[in-house]
Each structure stands twice: as structure tokens, then as C-alpha cells.
Amino acid sequence: MKIRFKASIQLRKLVGLTLLVLGSPLYGQQRATILSFDPPGSPSPSQTFPQSINPAGVITGYYNDVNSVPQGFLRARDGTFLHFDPLGSLAALNPQGQGTTPLSINLAGAITGYYLDVNFVAHGFLRAPNGVFTNIDPPGSLSCNPIAINPAGAITGNYADGNTGLNRGFLRSPNGIVTSIDPPGSQSSNGTAPQALNPAGAVTGFFQDTNAFFPGFRAFLRIPDGTITVFDPPEDIASPGSEYIVPSVLTRRE
Amino acid sequence: MIDLPNSASNQGTFIFGINPKGTVTGNYFLNNAYHGYVRTRNGTVTTFDPTGATGTSPASINPAGAITGNYSDANGTHGFVRIPAQPDE
Q1: Alpha-carbon distance B59 to B43, whole Å?
Q2: Alpha-carbon A245 to chain mean position
């Protein structure tokens, strides 16, 4: 009888301990948390579009205001919001389509994206962590669309070059030097569209290859020394460029 | 190749972000709606939708595995942030 009683206690302890351990977050029993948000001032129905989250959990993106004008926001990890619009976007003064579209934020909190001026011309911007804005307009740019910023502050994107009539890729170094990215065969009106860059400064994206028999889209990788490699998925080797390939992300290893 | 469970009947799988660990996020179309997913480097896939979502579109994932994006419901399109209970969840 005593033995049975002891065994029962042991079993209860074991079950209790198991439940305690499995119930601990260390063992994965907690589910991920999903928080919903709309920046203060969002109209109803809301239109909120977060675009990027940095390693500190800070989020940037935009929401469309009551006039459907995109407004930039920054959401801190504690859930507080900051609205921002580069000088010249006139989003608040002239609600006819102009606005701000942040697209990428790095660890330091530097943000890049684009805004439309009063003439609906797109300009790239860099918002430093202290809130200071710098325009990004490569020489000859008719419109500019930065798309990604890396931890060092290098920025990639594309722009319409008024001198050549081409859509070209660009890489802006942290000290502001802009280099165009033109993969071989990209000399067409559809041009080049970088999509991502990694901490080392390697850029990937896609372009329209006018040298291919079928002028389709092909992928490229530009490593920091400027060398550009064009690639296609294995299934596409027989007819390179005839299909669509659109790299959108790039990890540390290029 | 990444195809979500039930991919034979869905209409597409999309990737919108990858972090330095190789964890990928995106969405897939199934049963007339887009659903979010996160795939760890070892191939484990977890699907997710914010409560009440009629469509989910993750946009970005950070090194800790936190994901942001937007979802739609009857009241419009909202932002979301998904915070994992552990890094690779």
C-alpha cells in the first residue's frame, strides 16, 4: 500500500514537472505573438503598409491618409509612432497624390524610400536616424526609386536616366557616391531593377536582356568590386532570358 | 524550391524576405486567400494569419525572426508584427 502511494506521488511529480517544462517558453509551447497596428490618424477603412523591420524591431512603412496620400511612419518597438515626410513631398499641403513611401530601414534607423514632389516627380530620400533628410537623385535622374539600405548605409535602387533614356540601377555608397549598375544586355527602356543588397554591398536584382533571343528578364549579382554576373535558374538554361526571374532578397553570403 | 503544404491545390508561393539565418517569409494562395508563412532553414514551415485576416502579406523579417507586413479584414488593411516566442518559430 505504501509502495503504491509513493509510486502515485512520484507519477504526479513527474507529470507536474513535465507540464511545467513543456509549458515553459524555452521549450516552444508559447505561440508567436501577432500584433495589429494602424498609425494614429489613419482613416477608416485603414490602409497601412509596413515595408521593413530592422534588427531592433523598428518598423517603417506608409499609410494612405484620408486623401489617399501616402504618409511615412516609423513604429518603435514599444509601439509608439513617428510620422515623417521629406521636405518637398508636400503631402500635407497639396493632397493630390504626392506623398512619401519609405521602403527600407537599417539597424541604425536610417531609412530610404522615395517621395513625389509637386510635379509628381519621384525623388529618393535618405532619412538619417536624427531625422535629417538627404535627397537621392543620381545625375540625370528624372525619377528615382531607392529600394534597400544596408547596415553601412549603402543604398540601391533604380532611376530613369534623362541622358540615356534608360532605367538604370544604382548603388549609393555611405559617403554619397553614386555608381550606375548596367548589366550587359540591359540597354533597353525596361532596364535594370536592383532589389536587395547585403551588408557587404553586393546587389541582386533583375534586368531586361536585349541580347537574348527572347528579350526576357534575367537575374544579376553585382559584387562589391563591381563585377556583374548574370544568372538564370537551371530550367532556363536552354533559352536564357526567355522566362521571368526576379530575385528579391539577398543574404550575407554572396 | 519552396512549396507550402497543400501546394498542389494552391495557386502560388511567394517569398518576400529572408534573414541572415536563412529563415524565409512570404505568402501563398489557398482557398481564395493569401496566408502568411515562415520557413526556417531546416525546412520547418509555420503558417499564420492575424486574427480576422482575409488576406496576409508579410513584407520583411529581421534577424530575430520578427516579421512585419500587412493584412486585410472588413475594416481595411492593417499593419502587423509577428514576434516569435523563440528565434526559429
Answers
A1: 20
A2: 18
d(CA A8, CA B24): 47
Q: Which domain holds residue A159?
A: 40-236
| Tens-place pLDDT, residues A122-172 | 999 999 999 999 999 999 999 999 999 999 999 999 999 998 888 999 999
Q: Are A172 and A178 in contact (CB under 8 A)?
A: yes
Give A56→chain B minimum CA distance, Å. Answer: 8
Which candidate in A27, A31, A36, A244 is best for mutational testing of the B interface (most B CBs within 10 A)?
Answer: A36
What integer pLDDT is reported at residue A67 of this predicted model? Answer: 84
CA distance A117 to A109: 24
Tell whether A247 is covered by a domain.
no
Distance CA B36, CA B13 (A): 10
**pLDDT score of A185:** 83
Complex ipTM value = 0.91
* Count of the separate structural domains present in chain A: 2
**Cell for A217?**
528578364
Q: Are residues A4 and A92 in the same domain?
A: no
pLDDT digits (tens, 9 = 90+) for A228-242: 998 876 654 434 443
C-alpha to C-alpha distances, B85 to A32, A37, B57, nearest whole angstrom: 5, 19, 20
The answer to whether B80 contacts A37, with C-beta atoms less than 8 Å apart, is yes
Q: Is the pTM of this model over 0.90?
A: no
